Amino acid sequence: MTRFTRPASRRLTFAVLAAGAGFFAMLQSLISPVLPTIQHDLHTSQNTVTWVLTAYLLSASIFTPIFGRIGDLVGKERMLVVSLLAIAAGSLLAALAPNIGVLLLARVVQGVGGAVFPLSFGIIRDEFPADRMPSAVGAMSAIIAVGGGLGVVTAGPIVAALDYRWLFWIPLVVVAATAVAAYLLVPESPVRSTGRISWPGTVLLSGWLVALLLGVSKAPVWGWESGRVLGLLALGLAGLVAWVLVESRSANPLIDMRMMRHPGVWTTNLVALLYGAAMFAIYAFLPQFVQTPTSAGYGFGASITSAGLLMLPMLVTMFVAGLVSGRLEPRFSARAQLATGTALSTLSGASLVFAHDARWQIAAAAGLFGLGIGLAFSSMTNLVVRSVPSSQTGAATGMNANIRTIGGAIGAAVMSSIVTAHPQPNGLPREAAFTAGFAMLTVLSLAAMAAALLVPSGRRTVRDLRRAGTEQPAQTDEPVPAAVVGPALPAPANG
Fold it and tell me: Which CATH number applies to 258-468?
């Protein structure tokens, strides 16, 4: 098989990146609604089947920044193909899994493909000219965000019409074809960093991420005060401190700590942590709320498919907001979009606290939250991309995605603890518990909005880069992306 010698068109490149990133995002949420079906089919326990989600989360959190960094070193398009092949191999193994052990292994292999996110953003930065990059980043962010929600919507109909194993067969076919297209169509990286992988940093990063995420994700089951959870959280914190110290002293760090201390990076990462917690909380528990039987005194007794349809307004609004985000940036900065997105999510959470008795109220709140997600996702990625040298785009965006995942794990775990505390005699959650949970995600969104106001302006970002001596223009014949040197130029026709 031979590569095309001529550079592929940017539209084809973007289509390949969108297919890979979109389907990986779907795999994050596609399995959640059908865990009881998997538990019954594979004859396992409820506690064991939850590892189908946990194994995927842990694997993706480890490999996303590592493969992003390797992509910066050896070529983003090469690691993109490797990541897509990992998703395809994991999907094949999961579709054929005869027992829960094989399925868990398959989910670990699928999680390796998490690097498609940072690699895709890095390739966009390398290949797109200055006036198109914010729009491309915004569109990609919208596709990723919609992909995550689309899994909740499509899982029910697919399982009802076919079988839960088709939740793996369909991604296998699409992602395998995408891997071939990536090999043939995505140009080789014109921008690469130098050095080598810091293996001590890699081991420490993997260790503290596993300890932290495992402790947080299992806290609702094991109990926040259990020795296992407290031990894992303490181990994660100690590993984090050790990792920062090792990376700060390394000549070839996996993640450059100077980059992480940059005002444009750490403030955006703080927003990602808080906003990820709110977003994953509403993803996980708004469908659960509407599926609650009416005998509980609230809820609508909706099926998985009906609950997914109530999430459609969120998917539509987040996609539209993500698409227009980059085009708005010349007049509505990424910083302003981030603050606006978090404000809209705050309003959505507050509306759920006081009004959740009718389906239209749920749909309206979901649509409003979707607007917030679309603006926030696009602007976060654009802010990170513009704050780091082009040779560190993969590592920086990978770490931002990881921090958002950490926030999501925390938000989902805390929401689960709130909702399941003090159930009714019939075992169903109380309405007051959901109300308290919606109040929590409102507070999280409000805190994210406050953090968004700390993000520096575009001019200050460039000034800080120059002072730190880390500003590096892309080594390519294309114009230097506007996100590297300042505010975006008007788009003719983020994240």
Answer: 1.20.1250.20
